[in-house]
Design goal:
Blueprint lengths: L5 H11 L2 E8 L2 H18 L8 E10 L1 H14 L3 E10 L7 E5 L3 H13 L8 E5 L5 H14 L7 E4 L1 E7 L10 E7 L2
Antiparallel strand pairs: 1-2, 1-7, 3-4, 3-6, 4-5, 7-8
Helix pairs in contact: 2-5, 3-4
Protein name: Putative RNA ligase/cyclic nucleotide phosphodiesterase
Keywords: Ligase
GO molecular function: 2',3'-cyclic-nucleotide 3'-phosphodiesterase activity; ligase activity
Protein backbone atom coordinates (compact mmCIF):
# COMPACT_ATOMS: atom_id res chain seq x y z
CA UNK A 1 0.00 0.00 0.00
CA UNK A 2 1.40 3.41 -0.95
CA UNK A 3 2.00 6.11 1.63
CA UNK A 4 -0.47 8.94 1.39
CA UNK A 5 0.05 12.27 3.10
CA UNK A 6 -2.74 12.75 5.68
CA UNK A 7 -3.55 16.25 4.44
CA UNK A 8 -3.83 15.08 0.85
CA UNK A 9 -6.08 12.18 1.79
CA UNK A 10 -8.15 14.44 4.03
CA UNK A 11 -8.57 17.08 1.35
CA UNK A 12 -9.59 14.48 -1.22
CA UNK A 13 -12.02 12.87 1.23
CA UNK A 14 -13.55 16.28 2.00
CA UNK A 15 -13.98 17.02 -1.71
CA UNK A 16 -15.58 13.64 -2.33
CA UNK A 17 -17.81 13.63 0.76
CA UNK A 18 -21.47 14.12 -0.16
CA UNK A 19 -23.38 16.92 1.58
CA UNK A 20 -26.91 18.30 1.43
CA UNK A 21 -27.52 21.22 -0.92
CA UNK A 22 -30.51 23.39 -1.78
CA UNK A 23 -31.08 26.01 -4.49
CA UNK A 24 -32.84 29.24 -3.59
CA UNK A 25 -34.30 31.93 -5.80
CA UNK A 26 -33.07 35.24 -4.38
CA UNK A 27 -35.40 38.21 -4.29
CA UNK A 28 -34.66 41.65 -5.70
CA UNK A 29 -33.44 43.94 -2.88
CA UNK A 30 -36.64 46.03 -2.58
CA UNK A 31 -38.75 42.85 -2.36
CA UNK A 32 -36.35 41.33 0.15
CA UNK A 33 -36.62 44.41 2.40
CA UNK A 34 -40.42 44.32 2.13
CA UNK A 35 -40.51 40.63 3.09
CA UNK A 36 -38.04 41.20 5.95
CA UNK A 37 -40.40 43.81 7.44
CA UNK A 38 -43.24 41.28 7.41
CA UNK A 39 -41.13 38.44 8.79
CA UNK A 40 -39.85 40.61 11.64
CA UNK A 41 -43.41 41.67 12.51
CA UNK A 42 -44.52 38.03 12.59
CA UNK A 43 -41.53 36.93 14.67
CA UNK A 44 -42.21 39.68 17.21
CA UNK A 45 -45.63 38.15 17.90
CA UNK A 46 -45.17 34.44 17.16
CA UNK A 47 -41.45 33.77 17.70
CA UNK A 48 -39.40 31.53 15.46
CA UNK A 49 -35.93 31.96 13.99
CA UNK A 50 -34.95 34.86 11.77
CA UNK A 51 -35.24 34.13 8.07
CA UNK A 52 -31.70 35.17 7.19
CA UNK A 53 -32.23 35.42 3.44
CA UNK A 54 -35.79 35.77 2.14
CA UNK A 55 -35.98 33.31 -0.74
CA UNK A 56 -38.05 30.94 -2.82
CA UNK A 57 -36.87 27.32 -2.67
CA UNK A 58 -36.27 26.19 -6.24
CA UNK A 59 -34.71 22.83 -5.38
CA UNK A 60 -35.20 20.96 -2.14
CA UNK A 61 -32.49 19.13 -0.25
CA UNK A 62 -30.33 16.87 -2.41
CA UNK A 63 -27.18 14.96 -1.50
CA UNK A 64 -24.16 15.44 -3.80
CA UNK A 65 -20.46 16.13 -3.64
CA UNK A 66 -19.68 19.84 -3.77
CA UNK A 67 -18.11 19.51 -7.21
CA UNK A 68 -21.18 17.74 -8.61
CA UNK A 69 -23.52 20.23 -6.92
CA UNK A 70 -21.65 23.25 -8.32
CA UNK A 71 -21.30 21.84 -11.84
CA UNK A 72 -24.94 20.79 -12.05
CA UNK A 73 -26.09 24.11 -10.56
CA UNK A 74 -24.11 26.06 -13.19
CA UNK A 75 -25.58 23.98 -16.03
CA UNK A 76 -29.12 24.31 -14.69
CA UNK A 77 -28.82 28.09 -14.27
CA UNK A 78 -27.61 28.44 -17.86
CA UNK A 79 -30.62 26.48 -19.11
CA UNK A 80 -33.34 28.67 -17.62
CA UNK A 81 -34.20 32.33 -17.83
CA UNK A 82 -35.42 34.61 -15.10
CA UNK A 83 -38.42 33.39 -13.12
CA UNK A 84 -41.47 35.68 -12.98
CA UNK A 85 -43.30 35.40 -9.66
CA UNK A 86 -46.85 36.43 -8.84
CA UNK A 87 -47.99 36.21 -5.23
CA UNK A 88 -51.58 34.96 -5.00
CA UNK A 89 -52.30 34.53 -1.29
CA UNK A 90 -50.98 33.92 2.21
CA UNK A 91 -51.05 30.23 3.14
CA UNK A 92 -50.11 28.01 6.06
CA UNK A 93 -48.69 24.53 6.20
CA UNK A 94 -47.91 21.82 8.75
CA UNK A 95 -44.27 21.94 7.61
CA UNK A 96 -41.77 23.86 9.75
CA UNK A 97 -40.18 25.82 6.88
CA UNK A 98 -43.56 26.63 5.29
CA UNK A 99 -45.47 27.47 8.47
CA UNK A 100 -46.73 30.80 7.07
CA UNK A 101 -45.84 31.61 3.49
CA UNK A 102 -46.80 33.44 0.33
CA UNK A 103 -48.06 31.14 -2.40
CA UNK A 104 -46.51 31.80 -5.81
CA UNK A 105 -48.75 31.24 -8.84
CA UNK A 106 -47.43 28.14 -10.63
CA UNK A 107 -48.31 29.38 -14.12
CA UNK A 108 -46.97 27.60 -17.21
CA UNK A 109 -43.81 29.71 -17.58
CA UNK A 110 -42.85 29.34 -13.92
CA UNK A 111 -43.53 25.60 -13.95
CA UNK A 112 -41.56 25.10 -17.14
CA UNK A 113 -38.46 26.89 -15.85
CA UNK A 114 -38.42 25.27 -12.43
CA UNK A 115 -39.02 21.82 -13.95
CA UNK A 116 -36.10 22.27 -16.35
CA UNK A 117 -33.91 23.32 -13.42
CA UNK A 118 -34.97 20.36 -11.28
CA UNK A 119 -34.41 17.87 -14.11
CA UNK A 120 -30.70 18.67 -14.12
CA UNK A 121 -30.63 17.25 -10.59
CA UNK A 122 -32.97 14.36 -11.49
CA UNK A 123 -35.61 15.78 -9.18
CA UNK A 124 -39.14 17.11 -9.52
CA UNK A 125 -39.79 20.81 -9.03
CA UNK A 126 -40.90 22.29 -5.71
CA UNK A 127 -44.15 24.03 -4.89
CA UNK A 128 -42.98 27.62 -5.11
CA UNK A 129 -43.55 29.58 -1.94
CA UNK A 130 -41.95 32.42 -0.02
CA UNK A 131 -41.74 31.64 3.69
CA UNK A 132 -42.65 34.41 6.10
CA UNK A 133 -42.42 32.46 9.36
CA UNK A 134 -40.70 29.23 10.34
CA UNK A 135 -42.16 27.31 13.22
CA UNK A 136 -44.66 24.87 14.60
CA UNK A 137 -47.78 26.85 15.43
CA UNK A 138 -51.22 25.67 16.41
CA UNK A 139 -54.04 26.04 13.88
CA UNK A 140 -55.33 29.08 15.79
CA UNK A 141 -51.88 30.71 15.86
CA UNK A 142 -51.48 30.11 12.12
CA UNK A 143 -54.84 31.76 11.48
CA UNK A 144 -53.81 34.79 13.55
CA UNK A 145 -50.42 34.93 11.81
CA UNK A 146 -52.12 34.78 8.41
CA UNK A 147 -54.31 37.75 9.37
CA UNK A 148 -51.31 39.62 10.79
CA UNK A 149 -49.56 39.43 7.40
CA UNK A 150 -52.29 41.60 5.86
CA UNK A 151 -51.98 44.10 8.70
CA UNK A 152 -48.20 44.32 8.22
CA UNK A 153 -48.46 44.72 4.42
CA UNK A 154 -51.98 44.99 3.02
CA UNK A 155 -50.87 44.72 -0.62
CA UNK A 156 -48.60 41.71 -0.15
CA UNK A 157 -50.95 39.28 -1.89
CA UNK A 158 -51.08 41.28 -5.09
CA UNK A 159 -47.56 41.95 -6.22
CA UNK A 160 -45.17 40.56 -8.81
CA UNK A 161 -41.40 40.35 -8.99
CA UNK A 162 -38.74 38.50 -10.95
CA UNK A 163 -36.09 36.15 -9.65
CA UNK A 164 -32.91 36.89 -11.56
CA UNK A 165 -30.42 35.22 -9.18
CA UNK A 166 -30.16 31.72 -7.78
CA UNK A 167 -27.95 30.62 -4.91
CA UNK A 168 -26.63 27.18 -4.04
CA UNK A 169 -26.43 26.55 -0.30
CA UNK A 170 -24.80 23.74 1.65
CA UNK A 171 -27.33 22.94 4.33
CA UNK A 172 -27.32 21.20 7.68
CA UNK A 173 -30.72 19.68 8.43
CA UNK A 174 -30.11 19.67 12.16
CA UNK A 175 -29.83 23.49 12.11
CA UNK A 176 -33.42 24.65 11.67
CA UNK A 177 -32.34 28.29 12.10
CA UNK A 178 -30.24 28.04 8.91
CA UNK A 179 -27.48 30.04 10.66
CA UNK A 180 -24.84 27.45 9.73
CA UNK A 181 -26.00 27.06 6.13
CA UNK A 182 -23.37 28.38 3.75
CA UNK A 183 -23.76 29.95 0.35
CA UNK A 184 -21.52 28.10 -2.08
CA UNK A 185 -22.36 29.95 -5.28
CA UNK A 186 -24.69 32.67 -6.57
CA UNK A 187 -25.43 33.08 -10.27
CA UNK A 188 -27.42 35.59 -12.28
CA UNK A 189 -30.12 34.25 -14.60
CA UNK A 190 -30.50 35.69 -18.11
Amino acid sequence: MANVEPTTAGDQDAAETPHRYVAWGLLPDPVSRRIKNVTEGLRAEFGGPEIIVPHIPILGSIILTEEDAVNTFRQACQAIGTIPCKVTHVATSPFYYQCVHLFIDPDHEVQQRTEIFARFFRRISNMLHLSLLYGELTAEEKKRAQEKVSVLDEAITSFNFTIDRLALYKCHDEDRTQQSWEKILELRLH
